[in-house]
Each structure stands twice: as structure tokens, then as C-alpha cells.
Design a protein that fits this description.
- This is Hydroxymethylglutaryl-CoA lyase.
- Pfam families: HMGL-like (PF00682).
- By secondary structure, the chain is α/β, with parallel strands linked by helices.
- 44% of the residues lie in helices and 15% in strands.
- It has a single domain (6-312), classed as Alpha-Beta Barrel (TIM Barrel), CATH 3.20.20.
- The chain is globular.
Length: 313
């Protein structure tokens, strides 16, 4: 298997969505440009959802136009229903992320319908999807639900089988929505999913860092062959419909870990760090991660001082 990994930057959607103060569209556009300049080629730029439920994302259609002007960028947008998927396609989206939950309670909280109803809705989306539109499934609460607790592997696998049978060529992302997954649980489900559905070419993993395990679970998924990972610059994030969930694993932390392992990410950490700093400083943002502090201006100054002291000796 290839050692290289692909990082999907989700701060403009998952990171910005819980922020209360309005982030101007031009500020969001500037983040997109800077993230792309740092080498990120897949960015989840927003979501087609109710502007009443998630007002921060009401300008996603405008950001699609910005993303279309960035060479080499594959912008993706999240959609919770087939109706929202149609709106996204009409606005120019060519990479959709359909989200549903493995747990009944969270699916009701998130999209106001049962899991079975979401599966039926997904079938309607497939029937109407244009041939030039890429598709991914985000399976939320694949490991843990804020209402139902730890998810058993068996029922989650059964849901994965049903979705794969409907269209096997989609990318499937197993999501730790609450950040309560442990490395062994992630490894178990990733291995079992790959074994039961070998026809799936691309598996992805979405980590939150609520308990400081985001990097550990990301590495566990990597060991089981996953090569696509979601992360958010500045460690931003938090699900409005998952009480207690905090930010995503920080992109800068993930890049640092993989590069330190000798695994190519295609991302310039030097270019990413100032973007992550600015993301973390957004009013109302809930930031996380460690690499910014470890590699930031103070660390650089200490390194220069140490170098000068060595020269003096």
C-alpha cells in the first residue's frame, strides 16, 4: 500500500459551522486561497443546509464560485438530504458528501429522520445524481453517539454493507463524531469494514480531539490501510447536534505526525501554520491542537537562542 496520505481540510465547514459571530464571505474566501496555497487539494468548503439551523454556512454557494477559480482544488460540500444535494448541484457543486448517522438518536437530532429514512433518501440521491458528480458518504457516530454511547461494530458494519451495495464506488468516511473513540475501536472497525466490503476503493477517517486522542485514532486508522483523513486547521470544530463534541484533529498536527513518519502529505507545514494560527484566532472559534504552539514564533525564537548559545561555546 502507498505510504502517502490525502488530507481533507474541513475547517471551512466543520470548523466554521459552530462559530456564532458571522465570518465575512471574503474572509472565508481568503482562508480557502491560503489553504490551497499550502498544498491542500481537497477542502470541504461548506454545506447546503438550512440557514436557520446553521447560519454560518449560508454563503456556501458563493464560496463554490471562489473555489472554482483555484487551480487543482477539489472542493466538496456536505449535504444531509437528496433535496439539498439537488440545490448543491444546481449551484455548481461537483463533489458531494452525504451525511447520515449510524445511531438512531443522533440521526434524529442531526437530520430529523430515522436511519432507514436516510438510507431511502440516499437511494433517491443516487437515482438523480449527474454522472460528473463525485460522491462520498460520511457515516457519523460510527464509533460513539452522544446519546446512545459506544456503538457496537456489528450494526455499524451492517449499515455499511447496505450503503455499499447501493453504490460500491463511493468513498466512505467513518466518523468519530464525539471524539470518544479509542485507537483499538477505530482499528477494529476499519479492519472489519475493509474485510466485509473489499470493493470499496477509498476509506476515510474523520477524527475529533475531544479527549486528546485524535492523532492516536488517526494513526490507528492509518495502520489498517486508511489513506484519506479529515482534519481542520487550528483544530476548529464541534457538532451543534452532538453535545460535548469539541474540535476536529488539527491539520497541522496531522501533517506534522505523518511527515515525521516519512509519509508524504503534499502539504507545506510552513505555509499551513500561519493559516492555522489565524483560524484559531477567529472570534468565537473553539481551537485545539499542539503543533502551532510547538512550532510557533516562541519555539522558533528558542531555537535561534539555542543555536546562538551553541555557537558561543
Amino acid at each position: 500500500m502507498s505510504k502517502a496520505v490525502e488530507i481533507v481540510e474541513v475547517a471551512p465547514r466543520d470548523g466554521f459551522q459552530p462559530i456564532g459571530p458571522w465570518i465575512p464571505t471574503e474572509t472565508k474566501a481568503a482562508f480557502l486561497r491560503r489553504l490551497a496555497a499550502a498544498g491542500l487539494r481537497r477542502i470541504e468548503i461548506g454545506s447546503f443546509v438550512s440557514p436557520t439551523a446553521v447560519p454560518q454556512l449560508r454563503d456556501t454557494a458563493d464560496l463554490l464560485e471562489v473555489a472554482a477559480r483555484l487551480p487543482g482544488l477539489r472542493p466538496q460540500v456536505l449535504v444531509p438530504t437528496a433535496r439539498r444535494a439537488r440545490e448543491a448541484v444546481q449551484a455548481g457543486a461537483r463533489f458531494l458528501v452525504y451525511v447520515l448517522s449510524a445511531s438512531e438518536a443522533h440521526n434524529q437530532s442531526n437530520v430529523r429522520r430515522s436511519v432507514a429514512e436516510s438510507v431511502e433518501d440516499y437511494a433517491r440521491l443516487l437515482d438523480a445524481l449527474p454522472g460528473d458528480v463525485e460522491l462520498r458518504i460520511n457515516l457519523a457516530t460510527a464509533f460513539d453517539c452522544p446519546f446512545d454511547g459506544r456503538m457496537a461494530v456489528g450494526p455499524v458494519l451492517e449499515l455499511v454493507r447496505r450503503l455499499v451495495a447501493m453504490r460500491p464506488d463511493v468513498e466512505i468516511c467513518l466518523c468519530d463524531t464525539t471524539g470518544r473513540a479509542t485507537p483499538d475501536h477505530v482499528a477494529q472497525l476499519c479492519a472489519a469494514a475493509a474485510a466485509c466490503c473489499p470493493q470499496v476503493a477509498n476509506w476515510a477517517y474523520h477524527a475529533h480531539d475531544t479527549y486528546g486522542l485524535g492523532l492516536a485514532t488517526t494513526y490507528a486508522a492509518y495502520q489498517e490501510g486508511v489513506r484519506v483523513f479529515d482534519a481542520a486547521a487550528g483544530g476548529l470544530g464541534g457538532c451543534p447536534f452532538a453535545p460535548g463534541a469539541t474540535g476536529n484533529v488539527a491539520t497541522e498536527d496531522v501533517v506534522w505526525m505523518f511527515e515525521r513518519m516519512g509519509t508524504d502529505t503534499g502539504v507545506s507545514l510552513e505555509a499551513l501554520l500561519p493559516v492555522a494560527q489565524d483560524a484559531a484566532a477567529l472570534p468565537g472559534a473553539s481551537a485545539g491542537g499542539r503543533a502551532r504552539q510547538a512550532l510557533g514564533p516562541c519555539a522558533a525564537a528558542e531555537e535561534r537562542i539555542t543555536s546562538l548559545e551553541k555557537s558561543a561555546r
